[in-house]
Each structure stands twice: as structure tokens, then as C-alpha cells.
Amino acid sequence: MEDLIKHIRYLSAVTIIWIDGKDGSGKSYLATELAKKLKYNVIHVDDYLVPSQGSYFGSLKLDSLSQAINEKSKYLIVEGICLLKVREALGLKKGFDVYVKKISLEGDWADEGECNISEPPDVYIQRQQEDICKVAAICFMGKKDEAIEFPAVAREIITYHYDYKPHINSDATYSRIEQ
């Protein structure tokens, strides 16, 4: 984290830091720690969600988020998922992008299988759905009382990573080792 802070301080023109990554990767932790050390304000994009809508991006109150960013645009950290898509929708280009990777105890990117796919998302998700159904059939001894759906937000995150490649297109990567 200290190297990231030094880099941001070196780039003295950085007034907005965008922290992106998969859910559970450590974005909120990084945002909080950077805010303390750099004296920046933090906006958590999740605070601008309409609950229980079954999607992420489609559930965002973009007007409210845009207003909050504009009100605090000097020395601001914005953290959330799908941020390149959010920024595109808001028409915001300036800022320093940090992508957070959760690293396993073995040293591998824990979410690489979902976030760095080379095949189209629909093909990948179909294979995952088939695997889920196989496991469900084994676990429930072949009973098929109810179809098991691939989570909509997981589908959205996989598609976002395929389309926007935030892990490649960020200015910096922060690797958080799983505890």
C-alpha cells in the first residue's frame, strides 16, 4: 500500500481515485486506508444502489452518484464494482484507476477464473451453469425440484470484466492477500 500512496503523491494532480475490483476483493478496505493517509473523502458506489433489483449497474442511482461526486470532486476516492462502466455512463474521464486483486495464500489471483476469461461471457457462464447443475444433481441425488440460476450480479461482473478489462486498463493494481 505504501508504494501506491507514494505513486499517488508523486502524481500530485490526482484528485479522484477510482478503486475497482470484484466484490469481496478489498476495495472498501483500500479506500478507507488511502483516505486516512491521503486525507481524501470516500464515496462507496454501493450506497447509491436501489436494493433488491437483481442487477448492479441497472440499480444505481446515477444522478445521485453524479451529484455526490461533483460536490466532493476535489480529493475524492470512489470505490465499487464496474467502475469503468459507471464512469462511462457519468461521462467522467479524469482520475487515477486502481484495480484490487484478491490473492490466494498460494499466490494466485483468486478471481482470475471469472475476471480474466478469454471466451465470450455467455459461453463461459453456460459452462459454469452446467457445472452448477451437475453438482446440484449429485448433492440432491438427482432430484430436480427447482432450477438453479446463475446469479445475475455474478453474470454482470463477468461480462463487465470481459468487456472493459479493468484489471488490464487500470493505472495501478493493488494485490490484497486473502487472510
Could you explain the architecture of this structure?
By secondary structure, the protein is an alpha/beta fold. The protein has 8 helices and 5 strands, in the order αβαβαβαβααααβ. The longest helix is centred in the C-terminal third of the chain and has 19 residues, at 121-139.
Produce the secondary structure layout.
Elements: H1 2-10, E1 16-21, H2 27-38, E2 41-44, H3 62-71, E3 76-79, H4 83-90, E4 96-103, H5 112-115, H6 121-139, H7 152-164, H8 166-169, E5 172-177
Parallel strand pairs: 1-3, 1-4, 2-3, 4-5
Name the features:
five-stranded parallel β-sheet; 5 strands; globular; 8 helices; 179 residues; alpha/beta; 16% strand
Residue-averaged pLDDT, rounded? Answer: 89
Helix content: 40-55%
Shape summary: globular
Question: What is the distance, rounded to the nearest whole angstrom, between the alpha carbons of the first and last residues?
Answer: 16 Å
What's this, in brief?
By secondary structure, the protein is α/β, with parallel strands linked by helices. It is built from 8 helices and 5 strands.
